[in-house]
Amino acid sequence: MLPMKAQMLGLLVKPNLLFLTRIIFTSSRYFVSMASQRNSYDYTYLLQRCKCTKTIKSVHAQIIIGGFGENPFLGAKLVGKYAQCQEPNMEDARKVFDCLPERDAFLWNMIIQGYANLGPFLEALNIYEDMRRSGVAATRYTFPFVLKACGAMKDGKKGQALHGHAVRCGLDLDLFVGNALVAFYAKCNEIGASRRVFDMISEKDIVSWNSMISGYAVNGCVDSALVLFHEMLQGGTMYAPDNATLVAVLPACAQTAAIQEGLWIHMYVIKSGIELDAALGSGLIAMYANCGRLSSARDVFDQINDKNIVVWNEIIRCYGMHGHADEALRMFSGLIDSGLQPDGVIFLCLLSTCSHAGMVKEGMELFEKMGDYGVEKASKHYASVVDLLGRAGFLHEACEFVKNMPVKSGKELYGALLGACRIHNNIELAEEIAEKLFVLDPDNAGRYIILVKMYEDAGKWEKAARLRKALKEKNIRKPLGYSAIELGCVLHQFGVEDESHPFKDLIFDTLERLDNIMEEELGLFDGFPLLETNAILTPIVTTANN
Asked: Distance between CA 530 and CA 124 in Å, rounded?
């Protein structure tokens, strides 16, 4: 016999359960009723408000209950939402696509776009081939997505085939397709083809210019990137540079130390009110660092509100490359305090900084701490440690480190060790290391030249001559050095025995006349004592400047 309180509780619980059951049943009938009354536009509105996969699936369930599960328009919207939400999921997007019996071009484009953005990129090409076999014609929106996937895979042959398809469809001169082709060829390192497509676009937009400038900069054609940037500004185009333009051209400014263009860009950012985000800010920091303006680089760093790992990397590299090792280490501490996790690039910068500053203890401590931050030690990090030890004169320790390290020795590592042998004039070890480098990096003339210089310094002329002969027989040439001068925002380069400059005759004639003037001026002071050197140099400099 249950106590009185328990009996009373049972009487209360049973009616409550019955009441709840009725509410749930009524709500379910209301849910089904409401779902059947909605149309495709109502569901489109609901999908637009979805932010996560859970809410998308909830609306997806309503669409199925409402009888719109095979609607191609809603299917395309679902595919797009699954692929573009906060937690993108191409598996769910593909399930929706596969369940639709009728597929129009819009739906095909949505699933191709999802794979082009998220991968696997090859699947985007497979879907495109399925689209062609199904008889649905590709549109001006199809080719940009498929070309993006080809560019991500750097598959030049398939991209060229797609270019041919676009020509047959009459879409090769379309603006969207043309811009995608410019970006694709640039990603595949075919910058000449990229420029030819760019020139064929009759009415270029800002994306056209940005893609071509970025293509030049990424492929190392920094001078061409700056020239094209000037054409964009001075050629009467109706488009003003935007954030993407400046982010694309700043690496070219940094590589050439083009301070005038860099200052103009910074001024343009301030006057135009463009937000100084992480991408733009890191580009400005790199530019100022390469131009030697550390204070300006630090000012830009302090103005960036949302600093990511790239921004911190650039400011640490800035201080490190100019010998401010203590400040670089302080910035690393600031990075840790900000809550960000350092990556392998950060540690490469720090190890290089410590190496050039002779801070062996600090460098080794950083190397040991890499595992604490979940950063895997790559071959470049081991090479940096060898350089750190070698520069400081610890050649024996560097060799022991190489023998005991878990990764396979590569050309970067032996190159660092050979450089250390050159600094400390250890010919025996240098010969041993050079033999390995001649196998690992046979076409690098710099490896031979280091050993040649060491032989010459030691008076071993026969060995030096033998190596120089080997260089000549193997046709291995060291890249020629060059000097550069910026004039009128244009960078002029002059290499050794270089006669490619369009004004070479005028330049050589001017140099010859200056040489004659200096000889005449020096001849006037032949009888003067040596203490009058400043008096001699003054008229020469004045005449040369004139």
From this structure: 78
